[in-house]
Design goal:
InterPro entries: Aminopeptidase_N-like_N, Aminopeptidase_N-like_N_sf, M1_LTA4H, Peptidase_M1_dom, Peptidase_M4/M1_CTD_sf. This is Peptidase M1. Its cofactor is Zn(2+). Keywords: Metal-binding, Zinc. GO terms for molecular function: metallopeptidase activity; zinc ion binding. This protein is α+β, with helices and mostly antiparallel strands. It has 3 domains: 192 residues, tricorn interacting facor f3 domain (Immunoglobulin-like, Sandwich); 127 residues, Neutral Protease, domain 2 (Orthogonal Bundle), CATH 1.10.390.10; 67 residues. It is built from 11 helices and 30 strands. The strands form 8 sheets. An 8-stranded mixed sheet has the order 5-4-8-2-1-11-14-13. A 4-stranded antiparallel sheet has the order 9-10-15-12, with no helix packed on it. Strands 16-19-20-21 form a 4-stranded mixed sheet, covered by helices on one side. α5 crosses α6 and α7 packs across α8. It is globular, with a radius of gyration of 26 Å. The two termini are 22 Å apart. The relative contact order is 0.09.
């Protein structure tokens, strides 16, 4: 909050917060983050990614067949691949195509007529040594380790940085392959390659190598495509869920097998809770996997490490004790199957939709298994980490990776506050399920989510979302008591902010409906004390008499 002056009578105050400094972007940020004309004219339908991994030299070489439907008859296509990887050749219908490179963007000149409505494909050949991740999974790239027996243990992570850091694709979140993808990986025969979807073929070759074919039948976001290579051991435990039997497969290092058999029992507890809150697991056809590597929401192939409850190091993010009741990586990263992989942001500016809902899902997991009060305590605990340093919605049409950490706790806190405003838990649950039903396997914007919740709650939430998503200000209830008068209003708020709030007034619980103008109530008895329900993410300020 900004400077506040105190007085005996209400006066206007300067509650403004310094403007957030404007970010600067490069041409490459725009080419990554904008739906460029060279992307907009075609709709992605399928990938067929096939490559060999030379582990000793940390080198990939292969091809990607990209299938698409023509939306408008253009002839220049943008495909992305980041250095030091490089595209070497591109073909369509057997003919070699020319291309120009601008940083990570390759602009391919198509020779065939691109007839609107027609289905086409190109084959892109590529090779190189993908970037090594300097700080897994936050740095982006590949991580090279060894297991207890000295065998290679390798995994990828590329959220924010983009899948194009290791394979050529249409690297923008707005367009996912309608019919999924096939991923074929050739590795030394004493190792196993694990990717998304289901294992559909294994071919041992004469040269001492093995190719693993993984098939994804559902749409998949590009950063959710993963690669894990190790001497994995495998076990499974099917889950009887809302849509029948869900295959649950687990791939872990040999030395961690017994720990995994115990720790991964939480996967069924997660599925039970989240199917209750959000509806059926969104990828029954592709199955569910936990794969030892790094914590990341790779679609149908959740990355995992740690084998302990709590967040990294076994700590409780909430400081309440409830965070030690579950394994953060299993619960949080799996929660992204609903919010990130099923419902996916079109633009990274709206990443709060992924992280806010999934952080809130942690509290719902606690509530499902330990009761409503426990979930509330956990949520209030993690909200202590809110910084209000930047609005939680970023800049559009660029790859704005400089987002605030508030997308996690503040995103969750605003959803918890919204639940209080709606004041109907069954309606709230229907809204959460409805989001995952109506936006099933779709890419969306924050506005899509905002409008959906407003429509199905029957409440005008325009100023609510403007306040919590697009400012750093904490709405503050200013109030005072004078004789038999109780007066209150919202300050530190956007114009027209009118969120109702539950309070205790001299120990009597009631709802009040403040606006940004003063509301005066007159009572028979003088009032002395007001306490705001702590489930609302707001501040309060009592004016001196």
């Amino acid at each position: 909050m900004g400077p506040v002056s105190l007085s005996r009578t209400p006066i206007k105050r300067d509650m403004t917060i310094e403007a957030v400094s404007k970010k600067t972007y490069t041409r490459q940020d725009t080419l990554r983050g904008k739906i460029t004309p060279e992307r907009a004219w075609w709709n992605l339908t399928h990938y067929n990614l096939d490559f060999e991994f030379d582990i000793e030299n940390k080198y990939l070489k292969g091809s990607n067949i990209i299938q698409y439907t023509v939306l408008e008859p253009k002839n220049v296509m943008q495909i992305d691949l980041q250095a030091p990887m490089k595209i070497t050749e591109v073909y369509q219908a057997g003919a070699s195509l020319t291309f120009k490179q601008e940083g990570s963007a390759y602009f391919i000149q198509l020779n065939q007529e691109q007839v609107k409505g027609s289905s086409k494909e190109i084959e892109v050949f590529y090779e190189g040594s993908p970037r090594v991740d300097p700080n897994p999974p936050w740095g982006g790239g590949f991580t090279y380790k060894q297991d207890a027996n000295g065998k290679p243990f390798i995994y990828s992570a590329c959220q924010g940085d983009g899948a194009s850091l290791w394979w050529p694709n249409k690297d923008h979140m707005y367009d996912e392959p309608d019919n999924g993808m096939k991923i074929s990986i050739t590795v030394p025969e004493d190792l196993m390659a694990v990717a998304n979807g289901k294992l559909t073929a294994t071919e041992k070759k004469d040269n001492g190598k093995t190719t693993y074919e993984w098939t994804v039948v559902n749409p998949i976001n590009s950063y959710g495509v993963s690669l894990n290579v190790a001497d994995y051991v495998h076990f499974s435990a099917p889950f009887k869920g809302m849509k029948g039997e869900l295959p649950c497969n687990y791939y872990v290092l040999p030395e961690n097998l017994e720990k995994a058999k115990t720790q991964f029992k939480q996967a069924h507890l997660m599925l039970e809770a989240f199917e209750h809150w959000f509806g059926p697991y969104p990828f029954y056809e592709d199955g569910y996997k936990l794969v030892e590597g790094t914590g990341m929401e790779h679609q149908s192939s959740i990355g995992y490490s740690g084998y302990q409850n709590g967040i990294s190091g076994g700590s409780d993010l909430s400081g309440t004790g409830w965070g030690l009741k579950f394994d953060y990586l299993i619960i949080h990263e799996s929660g992204h199957e609903w919010f990130a992989n099923n419902i996916t942001y079109k633009d990274i500016a709206d990443m709060w939709v992924h992280e806010g809902f999934t952080t809130y899902a942690e509290a719902l997991y606690i509530e499902y298994h330990f009761g409503k009060r426990a979930g509330e305590e956990y949520l209030k605990g993690i909200s202590q980490g809110i910084k209000n340093d930047k609005p939680i919605i970023g800049d559009y049409d660029v790859n704005d990776t400089d987002y605030t950490g508030d997308i996690y706790p503040k995103g969750a806190a605003l959803l918890h506050t919204l639940r209080q405003v709606i004041n109907d838990d069954e309606k709230w649950r229907k809204i959460l399920i409805g989001l995952n039903t109506d936006f099933y396997h779709k890419t969306i914007t924050s506005v899509d989510v905002e409008n959906y919740i407003a429509k199905h709650s029957g409440i005008d939430l325009s100023t609510f979302f403007a306040q919590y998503l697009r400012t750093t200000q904490i709405p503050t209830l200013e109030y005072y008591f004078k004789d038999n008068k109780f007066a209150y209003r919202w300050i530190n708020a956007v114009p027209g902010f009118d969120m109702p709030v539950k309070v205790k007034l001299d120990k009597q619980e009631l709802w009040i409906k403040p606006t940004t103008n003063w509301t005066h109530e007159f009572t028979e008895d003088p009032k002395k004390e007001l306490i705001i329900d702590s489930n609302f993410y707001v501040s309060s300020f009592r004016n001196m008499k």
